[in-house]
Amino acid sequence: MVTALTILLGLNGLLLILVVLVQNPKGGGLDSTFGGxxxxxxxxxxxxSDFVEKLTWGLAIxxxxxxxxxxxxxxxxxxxxxxxxTNTIFFLR
Length: 93
Description:
Layout: H1 2-22, H2 36-43, H3 45-76, H4 78-92
Helix pairs in contact: 1-3, 2-3
């Protein structure tokens, strides 16, 4: 379960990076480097920028929620207890 969540976190992070890189820094729509001129003509400049902005927010929220869920699951498993006990033993020596 933790492995699947970790993979989802990685994929979500990569998608978020790509979506942020596609955005035009001045808010004018998709960047032409990534084929934005065709997307602007197909969707319209306002619609494409709205879609990219909503996608960015959705991916950011999903990343945040997945990170919290993963932290809760890891904290509730015995693996988290083993890490805590080894840290305690390490610092006691």
